[in-house]
Amino acid sequence: MTEPRELIRSLLRESIRPCVTSSFQADCVALVHMVNDEAPGIPVLFLDTGYHFPETYAYRDAMVDRLKLNLVNVAAKNTVAEQEAKFGKLYQTAPDRCCGFRKVEPLFAALEGHDTWFTALRREQSPTRANLQQVEAFRLPSGHALQKVSPLADWTWPQVWRHVKALGLPVLPLYDQGYTSIGCSHCTARPVDPDNLRSGRWGGKKLECGIHIQAEAPHA
After folding, report:
1. pLDDT in tens, 46-84
2. Rounded distance between C-alpha atoms, residue 98 and residue 84, angstroms
3. Of 8, 65, 186, 212, which one has the fewest beta carbons inside 10 Å?
4. What does DSSP say about strands 145-149 and 135-139: parallel, antiparallel, or unpaired?
5. Which residues contact 147 (CB under 8 A, 6 or more apart)?
C-alpha cells in the first residue's frame, strides 16, 4: 500500500486533467487538503444535490475560503422543485432514482473532462468497499476511461480524525450529533450498526448512491 502523499504526487505527475471529489466529510477534507497542497487550484467537485444539511453548505463554504479551493458545484439538470413537481419526493419512494438524477448523472457528466479522479473512499467505510484498491480503472457510460484513485483506502476512522485534527482543521459539526456518514439530510441518520459507518444512510435500504459503482456502457 503506497503512502497517500507519495501516490498523489506520482499520479499528478502523470495526469493532465485531474480532479478530486468532496462531500466535505472528514476523510474528504483530509484528502482535499493533501491533493490541493500538491496541486493548488485542482478542481474540487461537490455534488450539490439541493438536499444537503444547512451545516454542510456552511462548512463547505468555510473550508473553500480557508483552504483556497477551486470549488466546482456539480448539480442536476432539474432543480429540487422541478424534480419534485414531476416525480414527487423520490428520496422517499425511489431513492435509487433520486441518487441517479441528483448524483450519478451529474457527476459522470462532470468527469468527462478529467483523466484522474481522486476520491476519499476507504475500505473500512462499508462492506461494499471492502475490496477497494488505491488505483482502479473506471469507465463512464460514454466509454470515457479514467483513473479512479483512493489514496486513503486503508486508513481507519481514527487515522482520519487524528490527521484532520493535527492540521488544526474543524470538522462538520454534524459529527458531534452522532452522525458518522453524512449525505443528503433526508437520507442520513445516525448509524444503526456501530461497525458499519454508512449504516445510517438511506434508511438501511442500501449503502451506495451509485457514483462509485462501475458504470455500464450505454445500450445500442
Report:
1. 999 999 999 999 999 999 999 999 999 999 999 999 999
2. 10
3. 65
4. antiparallel
5. 11, 15, 115, 116, 117, 135, 136, 137, 138
Give the C-alpha distances (Å, rounded to integers) separating 18 from 13, 43, 101, 112, 197. Answer: 10, 8, 24, 11, 28
Nearest-angstrom CA–CA distance, 127 and 203 = 16
Contact between 46 and 72 under an 8 Å Cβ cutoff? The reply is yes
Instruction: Classify residue 202 as left (phi > 0), alpha (psi -120 to 50) or beta.
Output: left
Exposed / middle / buried, residue 168 (Cβ in 10 Å: 0-12, 13-18, 19+): exposed
pLDDT tens string 168-214: 999 999 999 999 889 899 888 888 887 777 776 666 665 555 566 55
Task: Supply 71's cell numbers.
Answer: 470549488
Just list the catalytic residues.
209
Are 18 and 116 in contact by the 8 Å Cβ rule? The answer is yes
* CA–CA distance, 215 with 6 (Å, rounded to integer): 28
Cell of 68: 483556497
State the pTM of this model: 0.89
- Cell numbers for 165: 485534527
